[in-house]
Structure formats: structure tokens, C-alpha cells
Description:
Number of helices of chain A: 15
Oligomer: homodimer
Largest sheet of chain A: 8 strands, mixed
Largest interface: A-B, 46 and 47 residues
Amino acid sequence: MTDSGPVDLLVEGTLVDVHTGQLADRAIAVDDGEIVGFGAVPAMRTIEAEYVAPGLIDAHMHVEASMVTIHQYGDAVVPHGVTAVVHDPHEIANVLGPDGVRDFCADADRTPLKARMTVPSSVPASKRQDTGGAVDSAAVDELLDSDDAIALGEVMELDAVLALDDEIHEKIASARERGLPVDGHVPGVTGPELQRLARFLDTDHESVELAEARAKADAGFHVYLREGSTSKNLDALVDLVETVDPRQLALCTDERTVVDLLDDGGVNTAVRKAIELGVDPVTAVQMATVNVAEVYDLPFGRIEPGAPADMVLLSALDSWTVEHVLVDGVVDPTEDTPPATGSALPTDTVTFDRIAPSDLAIEHSGPGPVTVRAASAVGSFRTERLTGSVPVEERDGTSVLCGNSDDDVLPMAVIERHGGPGNVGRGFVHNLGLDRGAVGTTVAHDAHNCVVAGVTHDAMARVANELREFGGGLCVFDPESEDCTTLPLPIAGLLSEGTTAETAAAFEAVSGAADAIGLSVPGGIMELSYLALEVIPTYRLTNNGLVDVSEGSFVDVVVE
Amino acid sequence: MTDSGPVDLLVEGTLVDVHTGQLADRAIAVDDGEIVGFGAVPAMRTIEAEYVAPGLIDAHMHVEASMVTIHQYGDAVVPHGVTAVVHDPHEIANVLGPDGVRDFCADADRTPLKARMTVPSSVPASKRQDTGGAVDSAAVDELLDSDDAIALGEVMELDAVLALDDEIHEKIASARERGLPVDGHVPGVTGPELQRLARFLDTDHESVELAEARAKADAGFHVYLREGSTSKNLDALVDLVETVDPRQLALCTDERTVVDLLDDGGVNTAVRKAIELGVDPVTAVQMATVNVAEVYDLPFGRIEPGAPADMVLLSALDSWTVEHVLVDGVVDPTEDTPPATGSALPTDTVTFDRIAPSDLAIEHSGPGPVTVRAASAVGSFRTERLTGSVPVEERDGTSVLCGNSDDDVLPMAVIERHGGPGNVGRGFVHNLGLDRGAVGTTVAHDAHNCVVAGVTHDAMARVANELREFGGGLCVFDPESEDCTTLPLPIAGLLSEGTTAETAAAFEAVSGAADAIGLSVPGGIMELSYLALEVIPTYRLTNNGLVDVSEGSFVDVVVE
């Protein structure tokens, strides 16, 4: 330890002091990566800024939602002043289990972004679908010992929590024994159930209405106001800042699409929007720095002597106009450095055999048309139950149920892709709007099997085999051009090997191709990713068949 | 884990919600020691209260200041709604080292009070005086692994911190490695030194002026506003609540005399005074609950589902009028239970041989009067340098320096009592005001040797031997009655074996006896406890001789 000579850097500006809750002119001395004091001292370099804020922390997010590696994510958000994320590698865990979680954390060494993990608590999401990985209570206990584990990740199995199921409560106990918090996921829960859940869960980021959020705050939850690419809840929830002590509130994104990530970064957008909505700028910054740091006992998120020099230098606070970002005292650490490539994660996770069209079709011996159950995709990842009518046609000597384009009831399939049974769930989807061709993805919450849907089984098989070749991704087949447009996601079938810019461009190309063949469901091609999510209502298709989630059981596709 | 049938207890009242920062009507369900939810549910017992607040946490205190065991302390404060303390067993450590610290923590099992320890960081306070115990960096590292260790205790060796001394920085590193905070002790420090200290220290409780406290808040310290028996800083500092985010502030006592403890409890008095001074009651309660819990990552200090049921039921909030107290769901746990007695700590720590008057006198061969250096006790534990004149008299055939009652320059001695060299430091003290007799104590910060002062060496020896017989305590000898009045403190020479009431009564008796023989220094007999504290200016007497603290060296008593 030495302590003489000029410091490395002096930053002068108006400090957003998240401790005192005020703006204050300060000269901030930085040496050896650390903030060493306030006050003008001799320095090797001086930077003047209008405003200086602590590096932002996203209170809850999933890197996988952006379909890039964590190092690409870091390169995208650090220049916007996001220097840390609290992430839950829930999707990777579903594909690769605890080893994948470890590999994902290893990737975090390739970025200046400080990634802190909440250990996935609810993998698999159900027993109805085959996943690649599972994280049981023993694995949770082990993962909680990781250097970067700071909490148990969002607990989704609320029924199991309420039923005092041993397995989930062992996971919760593992966190509690270490003095770590437990993230919750309690959308729309109120009343006595909320109280019972509040005993075990410390945070929630799922509120969509003010009264719901207030009830959670009253129940002792740390309430995270979510402003992601899809779920934008700040407008509805922002008044909470006026009615409860804002120290209990934080900002998070939950998920950012790769296009939004490239255009505008991460949780910085939530801070900016909070300010636009009238939140005091210092309070807004507190909600994405010290408030998060206190929940998870993080050593950053404040500008004070002794803290790591993670700072954002801004020319304007209200518009969050960033001039420079420091992480551990390094100025603009992602600038001039070629983004790290590669990944510790595997690229061979799509294992099914080559698909023939007949693998995706439901055989039917009688005459058509036949009444079938279909998941109607109504947008926002919701489905409704639909009963439709589809024709029976002969294909290669076999009678199969085919799509009914007039009513927009089209075949869909979910192919197990993790080296398990390799079986195919076959069913129907309504409301995609496809005129021709097929779409498919290996990003399919939570089991991330391969989901394909299309006008013909031939087109669907083409897409499935394309995804098989690439090791996963998003794919659109247009029979007019005879071309597939693909975003390859070879890493775990979830993440791109490219940069954020490359991935965003490829995503735009795939979306454009999907538009061209008529895909018109509100969420676009990403809506496909939720058609197999058998833990939220109503009909969802798994590799093991169609589930009526509200009934909690498999149902036949054909209505007898 | 079970979850059926009526809960143990329902508490209905206006909740002081330290999360939302508001008052709110609530029914609080308690089962199996835990708060299990808000909302009326069937209960075995219902208690109605006007107000319900979380049990208070004293952010920084030394139990030893009250001269009772921690279980007696708990019995005294729990009925006032103080259910937890963050204590620093600094005095015990000086007498008994790490083993004593462990024994002290073991005693905490005998009280419902939740005692959390900050590990003494600065023992011994200096190398100039012999102590009974030392806590080096290896011992700190070991003690930080204790179940109840939550921080490194107040770091007093500021010069060593600034000089980047290895030993103190190893102690700080041991806390940092565990993610634990480091308490500071930075009275009056400002400017660049404050900034440099702020790198290493997280809290401070020593501010006496508003500007000083503000500077510490600006430097990132958690600022504790102290309101103890002796140091009452709330009046001067309370405006800080208006000018910085109060989440950064907390309340502490540092020390409570046994009389104040008996009369009025602990940090509850600081909460009440803050409210009297105009602090919003919810804010005042936050400053003694959740704010402390967040600094030390404590699992209590909030009323929320999942938290232990540590609650105070009040008939009036502003006056802090307590009706019932719950700790882990037990109602009024100290009522109807005879206070625990005994202690894991030893009672044989006063080891010096029987003292003869000549042991306490300075021999002098020349004629009198002689000019001597004397510590002038001016109150508030401060001393000033004084040069006085004392006579030379013959005692048992030897010429010795005696007291000069006209000028109130009286002999004083510090007897090593920890089984070390057993030597005696001899000197003079001014301004005690004694007319006759002698006073003595084994409570003598920080080394806690035996300090005696008196009009004659005979009286001083009488006191020293009385303390030797009792294994320590406070003692007054009045030659008119020929009686000693003693508060025995046999546990480590610091703590009483009696109840708080018995100890307070004995303390009052000793104080009265001291008054009767003329002791008139402002702090009364406790002023004696600081005359050997060789780390604060100016003259202090140690068992190894007189120290001029500002000069940092021993000086001769006799001015040549």
C-alpha cells in the first residue's frame, strides 16, 4: 500500500450524491481504481464534467433476453453508464444446468461490466416439458457459494412456496443461511397470499399497477419498477415514488431486446424516463445505484472515499447524456478495446435428428375437417384458448391434419433439442397471420426446445433443419425466395457469437423476413418464444404435448 | 415447517412502517417468533396498541460503560423497547483479550437482547501502558468469524491508518474480505485527513458540531448522532436530519451510566429526544432501526413478513411510552423472569500485591517544596497541564513528595493489575477538590489499571487494598468514618455481579461518599477513569509513568 505523489485522476463536477441525496460540487480523487477522497489534489489527469453520478446498477435482468453474450452486453451498456447488473441466468440454466451457470459467470470476466448473479431458483419451470438442465436444491446451495452469487434468483414456483414444498424451501433456506436475499416473482398477487409470500421473498419486479406495487411495498417487498423493452411499467408505477420512502424502490429492465440494447443501452433508459416522468433526478439515480447496493450488500453504487471508481460523467443529467464512464478508475473501458469474443459456453446444444415434414404432422384416420384446440397468440406473450377447424390431407400416403389459412389456424411443433427423448409435440397456433412459409426459434421459454410454426409442414421442417445446422437461433423460411433468413444463436441455442451490432442487424433481417411472409402477431417473431411456456395460461405446446395450464394437465389436440 | 391453524398472536395498531416511511393501521400476525403477515387472521391472542414500532437497535455502544453484565443491561433496556445493540467490547478486550471477548459474547446468550459485536480494533490503545489483553490482527481475523461479529469496531488509531501501518490495515482488510463494515472514531477530524480516513472507515459517532457531522456525511460516512449519558450531541446535530437524506444517519448512546440505564433505558432516550427536537417520529424510529440494520446487514429492525417479531407496542409515540415489547415473538420477555446472574467472564483480574503507602509515594532526597507536573482534571474527561508545588515530608524514615491541599495538587498512582509487571506509576493530580481521604477505581480507560488519588498515601493505600480484595470496583475512603464505600466490580474489574438496580444504588452510594470527602471535579468519581487514558491530551499517568500525550513521550513528574 503506497500513498504518495499525484493521484491518477481528478474528476471535477456536480456530484449526484446518493448518500446525502443532494447535488454538490466536488473534486473526486481517483487512484489505483478507487475513489480516495473529495477535494482538489495533484493529479496526473483532470476531467471536468457537468455532472458525476455513480455507475448504474440494473436491479434485475436476464442477459439472455438480448441474445448476446454478457461481454457483448457489457460493451453495449457500459458506454451508457451502466456499470453493473444483477442478472439471473435462468435461461442458460434451463439449457445447461449448473455447469452452464458457471460458464456464464466465467464469461463475465471478459467485460468491465460488473455482473452479479442471482442463482436460478426455478429450473425447470415445470415437469411437463424436457429441459437441458435442472438446478435442484443441492445445486442451488453449491452455486450460492460462487464469488458472484448475491441472492437466490426470482422464485416463480409460488404454489410450491405457499404449499411449503421442501425443495423450494431448501433453496430459500440456503440463501437465508448465508444472509442473502431472495428475489421474488409475484405478478398480480395480493391479499393473504401476498402476505404469505412476503415471509419468504424480499423483492419483486412484476408489478404492472400502482395499487399492486403499493401492496407489495406495504408487505415489505423491495419493489423494482420495471422498464424493459417489452414490459414498460414505469408510467403506471412512478407515483409510488411520491407515496413511499423511495429507498425501498429500485429500477430494473428485466429484459432488453438486442435492438433496444444497441440503440439505447440498458437501465439508463429507466433512469432517464423516471426523470422525464418527474422523479427528482437524485432520487432516480439512487433507485439505480445505492438502493440496489443495499438490497444485495454490494460494495459499489456510491461515490465515496474507499469505493471503487465506478462513475458516469454527464453533460446533462435530465437527458442522461453521457460523456465518459469509469469502471474501477479506467476511463471509457470499452472504447478502443476490441470487444471480447468467444464464450466459455458450449455451442452444440441442438441435438435432434434431421426433421422430416411428417415428423411435425398429426396423423388422422378419419375424414376432415377436424376440430382442434389451438393456442391463440393474442400478443404480450398471452394466449387464449381457441377451438378451430382444420382439414385432413394426404401426405406421402398418410392422412394428416393440416393448416387452415383462412381461419389462421396453423400447425406448430415443439422439438426436444437437449439430447433427451428427442420427441416432438404437435399442435396448432392461431393468430400468427402467416401467409406463407414458416418461422422457428430455439429461444422458447423456459425449456428452450425448438418451436416451429408455419403454413406447411414442409416449410416448418426446413426451418427446424436450418436451426439444427446453426446450433440454434431464429429462422424464417420464405418459399417465394426459397431462402431462409437466420439469426444464428449457437451459444446454448440462445446467444449470438456476434457483436451486439451484428446481432441486432441479423435480428432486424429476420424480423423483416417474418413481416414479409405475413407474421402479424403483436410481438413479432419473439411471440413464438412464449408459445411453449407451460407455466402461464392458457394453452401452451410442449415437446410432450398440449398443456391447458389453468387445468394443470395435458389435453388432446383433437377435440373428440 | 407447518402452516395451519390460528397464529400465536395478532398485534393491532398504527404501524411505524420504516420501509414506506409512513404510519399505517395494521394487524400484524406473529407465529413461532416470526412476523408472518399483515391482515386480520385467527389468533390465539390479540393485543391492541396505539402504535407498533420495530424493536430499537443502538447503533454503537459499550456495555461496560454501564458497569453491568450484558444480561443485566438487556433486562434494563428491553422493557424500553431496545431489542438489539451493536456493541464494542473494547474495555473487556483491554483486560482479557480475545478470550474475554468470547466470554462476553457467551454472556449475551443470557438475555433476550440481541447483542451484535463489532470486534475491538484498537487494543491496546498504546504501547505506553500495560494492559491485560491485546487483540492483534490475527486475533481480529479470528474474532470476525464469530457468529455475532458484524463489523470491525471503532478504529481509534487514526495516525496508524493514515500512515498505512500494516497492523491496522490488516485488521481493516479482514473486515473488508468478509464484506463487513469498519466503524470509525474520528472526533474533530476535517479536511484532507477526513477524506483519507473515509477511504477506510464507514461510520462515525464522534461528531459534536453540525459542520463536523455534515463534513462526515459528505465524505460518505454513516453518521451516528450520539446521545449518551455523558456525550449528548443531539441538540447540536439534529439539524442534519433536515439537510441530508436521513437514511445515512443513525442514533447511538456510546455509553449509559448505570443510573441513567436504570432510570430511562438506552437508545430509546435518543429516539424520544429526536422527536422532541422536531424530527418526524417515523424518521426518528428509522434512525434507530432500519438504518442501523442496513449498515450492518442485520435481519431485524423492520416489521415485515419474514422478519423476527421484535416489536415495541406504545401508547404514545412522541413520548415513547412503552406498553409491551416483543423479542422473537415473546411478549415482555424480561418480565416475570428473574434476571440471569453469573457470567462466563473471570472475577480474578486484580492481581497486584498488597499495597503499602510507601509504594504509592515518590521519594525525594532534597528539600521541599518541589515543583511537579500535575494533570489538572478540568471535567469532560479533559486534562490540562499544570505545574504545581508540593512539600517534601518524612514517612517511615524516607523523604517523599506529598499532597498540597491548599493548591489541590494531590498524589495519584496507577497500579498495574493484570498480572504483568505489577509496577506503580506515581504522580499528581489537580482539581479533584478532595478535602480528605482517597478515591480509586479499576475502571480506567483504556488499560483499566487501578487508579487511586487522595489526600494522603495512607488513604490511597487503603483504597487500593480494598479494590484488591473486591477484585475491582470503585471505592471511596473517608478517614472520618474510617469506612470504605465500595461498588464492587469483580467481573474483569469492570462489571458488577449485581442487578442494574443494585449496581445503580451502590454507584449512588459511592458517589455520595465521594461528595462527602469533597470530590468536586465535574464528572465526579468517573472522571478518575480517564486520568490514565494516555491517548488523549494532555498529561495522563500510566503504570509506567507520566505521559505528555501531545509530545508523545514520558516526562518526569519532578521539574528539575
